[in-house]
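FORM 12-B: Structure-to-Sequence Request
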């Protein structure tokens, strides 16, 4: 199941795997073309053994280099918690997230044009194993579909494109497809995000986030008319985006939104017991290739994110951005600890470059 409703492509692959060999199997190989693997942002695997799919558990995944395979492919290995015996069945769900997968075509459009993008993949599931039966479902964002590769068992129903079922597909089978369709959802790309997390002895965690954002879609061709945009924004600016949404923790407070000029008043805030939602509008709409910078900041209660155990203090907080549907190309997270902090250790769920430094830092507590 491929979700193309955003500029971030999400793929959920549901596999029913049978060990048809004579020996137990402890790993399952997952294959991706190199051109896709370089844009792979995240991969997760969940597995459960048995004829009937039950409660799944997370499986460790690592990059591997098996021998005797095509060099155009990148392989990952999902390690099973216990070997899969001969004749036994494993239900395996693999979630993958890709960036820069959708390519604008044409690459330049006018203010009045809708944005069209191209998606290229295979209608066959690319696997080092033979596949008995397989289907492919592609969810589109709505709007017009310019063209798509048609095979004998291809159907387009509303906003869903279906291929298959295919039976007895051999290993490493690749059946190319191209889908050319309209996608005017925000192609928000943070060229750089600097996220500063400051821990205060006075009971507060202060978050400051500096964004450098560009519209990563088709570049604007020709002049921009604000008069046309203001009179008919959904006709003379359909490919632009006007706002971004940040989902903050429920007890976020003292929230602000500003840029180099000063505070920006075009923002809206909603909150309930579960979340705080901040909708921000830049000073101008963003068309393809346009760029803007801004800063948001907010405070959080110290007791919600810092706890003590065994004579040490621990900060447990989200690593990335609270912005919805944003691609971050470069992320720097700075954690500012109180003076005198020592024996500092960082645990993150993925590899990071880390360094520590002692620098002067002044804070004014209201």
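FORM 12-B RESPONSE
SEQUENCE OUT:
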């Amino acid at each position: 199941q491929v979700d193309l409703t955003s500029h971030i492509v999400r793929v959920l692959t549901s596999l029913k795997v049978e060990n048809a060999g004579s020996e137990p199997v402890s790993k399952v190989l997952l294959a991706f073309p190199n051109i896709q693997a370089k844009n792979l942002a995240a991969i997760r695997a969940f597995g459960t053994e048995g004829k009937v799919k039950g409660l799944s558990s997370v499986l460790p995944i690592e990059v591997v280099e098996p021998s005797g395979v095509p060099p155009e492919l990148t392989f990952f290995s999902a390690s099973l918690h216990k070997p899969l015996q001969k004749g036994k069945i494993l239900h395996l769900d693999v979630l993958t997230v890709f960036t820069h997968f959708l390519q604008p075509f044409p690459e330049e459009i006018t203010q009045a044009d809708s944005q069209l993008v191209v998606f290229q993949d295979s209608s066959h599931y690319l696997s080092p194993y033979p596949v008995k039966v397989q289907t492919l479902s592609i969810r589109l964002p709505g709007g017009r579909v310019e063209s798509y590769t048609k095979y004998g068992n291809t159907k387009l129903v509303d906003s869903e494109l279906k291929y298959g079922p295919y039976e007895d597909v051999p290993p490493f089978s690749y059946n190319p497809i191209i889908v050319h369709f309209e996608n005017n959802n925000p192609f928000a790309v943070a060229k750089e995000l600097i996220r500063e997390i400051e821990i205060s002895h006075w009971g507060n965690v202060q978050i400051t986030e500096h964004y450098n954002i560009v519209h990563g879609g088709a570049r604007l061709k020709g002049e921009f008319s604000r008069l046309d945009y203001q009179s008919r924004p959904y006709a003379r600016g359909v490919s632009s985006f006007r706002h971004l949404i940040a989902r903050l923790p429920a007890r976020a407070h003292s929230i602000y939104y500003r840029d180099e000029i000063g505070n920006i008043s075009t923002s809206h805030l909603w909150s309930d017991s579960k979340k705080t939602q901040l909708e921000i509008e830049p000073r101008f709409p963003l068309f393809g290739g346009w760029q803007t910078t801004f800063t948001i900041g907010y405070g959080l209660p110290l007791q919600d994110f810092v706890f003590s155990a065994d004579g040490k203090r621990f900060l447990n907080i989200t690593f990335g951005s609270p912005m919805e549907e944003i691609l971050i190309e470069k992320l720097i997270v700075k954690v500012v600890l109180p003076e005198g902090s020592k024996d500092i250790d960082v645990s993150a769920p993925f590899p990071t470059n880390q360094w520590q430094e002692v620098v002067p830092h002044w804070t004014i507590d209201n």
